[in-house]
Automatic annotation (TrEMBL):
Upper classification of the organism: Bacteria, Bacillati, Actinomycetota, Actinomycetes, Micromonosporales
InterPro entries: Metallo-depent_PP-like
Keywords assigned by UniProt, alphabetized: Membrane, Transmembrane, Transmembrane helix
Region (Disordered): 1-33, 558-577
Residue spans crossing the bilayer: 43-66, 375-394, 406-426, 438-461, 473-499
Basic and acidic residues bias locations: 1-29
The protein's name: Metallophosphoesterase
Gene3D superfamilies linked: 3.60.21.10
Species of the source: Micromonospora robiginosa
Length: 577
């Protein structure tokens, strides 16, 4: 960040009724900002991997016991009407924000500007903002929301402009890791209903918005793909009474289950059940399904509706070059006996483009070891232990009791290495199918690490360190062999991820390990009074990493400005009627 162009201190602006006083910062110090800008999450950090794994396991085992949706029957059951002064409406959709500050704020800054000019289109600031899930990473919590989500959006739009835009949010799986506690406290509350300059409008973790000219937007909370609870279905039953055969519906869901169903056929069942039992009986048409969760932009076009993924709000980039060219939705092999009729959808657009996404994959060699130093250290530790075990067997001697106790049994280390690599080659979701390619690639990865350890052992035994009196060989191994073997092993993991990614295995890890902040996107919708919907998919090829205090000290002006914001359209505008 840059501290240049610091404006003179000004008196605090008067706040509107119900708003918290917002004092503009005079430096980029966290004490001035009111939050701490965070670096991107190092997704392969060992402690984070363990923590995330435990949280996922607990969510799977105890999610039903922690599910607060059943309690929301006591909350308000309002529906919300959003219409602009001209009878139309501008609405933004953003998802998967709340990771590193630079990427999250780059998008928040664009959302907050009074107007954007993108490829010749003048696009006013939206009167409604919908967040599509995963508003924070790596897990929900007060401090994480403040630093990674609410703080950056407060800096982008400090107080509400005259049109007072409204915010609605769908919870994603990361919002659910604490049982939805922090999400409800932030987005569903009876006082201080503000998220920066956006007013929070919803009364539950799901919502229904009536839009101009018969359009509706329904936001679902399916608790990480498990099911739709009875209070939620009852709420939407009441909403459905307001739908007519002339109504057109947009359904916002936490994850693109239409894509995930290619690997996990039952993934789409909850969405299909909702459309089939709640919306379809009214005669209304679902024209668009929209979600985040996968951190890119992709649109599938079908005979009746569009399926759009737009998870580019700030989290690490997820690849597009392995997306299926065609989808069958619902999949023919779902176990649901009364599923809707299967229809075919074709991939109409993606961002980043296929070739660019593939090129991003090659960056794994340089990014993995330096973006994930803890993971590299873990690899070095494991390879050092494996080398000592192999060296002990090769030398067939132990100079002292201490050395015998220090040695790690070779068989145990080999089992840990092979099983760890085999289970690392997992499907992209917990319920996905594990095919033969997963086992073949996983075992081959493990064998490659054993071979690397054998080569390292041979080299180590030919160096003078092993002949030193105990415990000097162990010290030399930790100081010299560990860091070098960790770096070499990280390149082996990078090679594995690149090869496995070509077969559709460990694609998430290939890109999560890199933490690519560029290629972000959000959607800006225009609902015209005559019922025409135009969707502008706005892409940002490069996020800003250099910020300065805004010389404009008006209350609604963003606190920080980037040096080179340059959005463009990911594809030409999409028109629905």
């Amino acid at each position: 960040m840059s501290d240049d162009h610091v404006p003179p201190r000004q008196p605090d602006p008067e706040t509107r009724p119900g708003e918290r006083a917002t004092r503009r910062p005079h430096s980029l110090d966290p004490l001035e900002l009111g939050f701490t800008p965070r670096r991107p999450v190092p997704w392969l950090a060992p402690l984070l991997l363990i923590s995330t794994g435990l949280r996922t396991l607990l969510a799977m085992l105890f999610g039903a016991y922690l599910d607060k949706r059943e309690l929301q029957n006591a909350f308000g059951d309002d529906t919300f009407r959003q219409v602009g002064p001209d009878g139309g409406l501008w609405l933004d959709y953003v998802a998967d924000l709340g990771d590193g500050f630079d990427a999250t704020y780059s998008i928040a800054y664009l959302l907050a500007q009074p107007e954007l000019t993108v490829d010749g289109h003048r696009l006013p600031r939206a009167q409604t903002l919908v967040m599509g899930g995963d508003q924070v990473y790596p897990s929900a919590g007060y401090e994480a929301y403040e630093d990674r989500s609410k703080g950056p959006y407060q800096a982008a739009l400090p107080v509400a402009p005259p049109e007072r835009p409204t915010l609605f949010a769908v919870p994603g799986n990361h919002d659910w890791y604490d049982g939805l506690t922090a999400f409800l406290r932030l987005f569903v509350r009876s006082r201080d209903r503000h998220f920066g300059g956006w007013g929070t409008g919803q009364s539950r973790s799901y919502f229904a918005i009536e839009l101009p000219a018969g359009w509706w937007l329904l936001g679902l909370d399916d608790q990480s793909g498990s099911y739709l609870d009875d209070p939620q279905l009852t709420y939407f039953d009441e909403v459905a009474r307001k739908l007519t055969p002339r109504s057109r519906v947009i359904v916002a869901v936490p994850a693109p289950t239409w894509v995930k169903a290619a690997d996990h056929p039952n993934a789409y069942d909850s969405v299909d059940y909702f459309i089939r039992t709640i919306v379809a009986p009214t005669g209304a048409q679902v024209r668009l399904l929209v979600s985040g969760d996968l951190h890119h932009y992709a649109r599938y076009a079908g005979p009746e509706r569009q399926l759009v993924t737009c998870g580019g709000g700030g989290a690490y980039l997820y690849p597009t070059h392995k997306l299926p060219e065609k989808l069958e939705v619902p999949p023919r092999d779902t176990l649901t006996r009364r599923a809707s009729r299967t229809r075919e959808y074709e991939l109409a657009a993606r961002y980043p483009e296929k070739a660019r996404s593939r090129r991003y994959g090659w960056g794994i060699f340089g990014r993995l070891p330096f973006r994930n130093p803890g993971f590299t250290t873990l690899l070095g530790t494991l390879h050092t232990l494996l080398m000592l075990a192999m060296a002990g067997v090769a030398a067939q001697r132990a100079d002292s009791t201490a050395q015998r106790l220090f040695s790690v049994p070779l068989v145990a280390m080999l089992v840990v290495t092979l099983l760890g690599a085999a289970f690392f080659a997992k499907p992209p979701n917990a319920g996905g199918k594990r095919h033969a390619r997963h086992w073949i690639l996983g075992v081959a990865h493990g064998v490659a690490h054993v071979a690397l350890a054998a080569g390292g052992t041979w080299l180590w035994l030919h160096l003078p360190f092993y002949e030193w009196p105990w415990p000097l060989p162990a010290v030399a191994a930790v100081v010299l062999y560990g860091p070098v073997s960790g770096l070499v092993a990280s390149q082996l993991v990078a090679l594995y991820l690149l090869v496995a990614g070509a077969f559709g295995v460990n694609l998430n890890e290939l890109f999560a390990a890199q933490g690519i902040e560029d290629s972000k996107a959000f959607l800006r919708f225009r609902f015209d009074p005559d019922g025409t919907l135009t969707i502008y998919p706005i892409a940002l090829d490069e996020v800003s990493h250099a910020w300065r205090l805004n010389s404009d000290d008006s209350p609604t002006a963003s606190w920080l400005t980037p040096k080179t914001p340059d959005p463009r359209l990911a594809e030409p505008p999409i028109t629905l009627r």
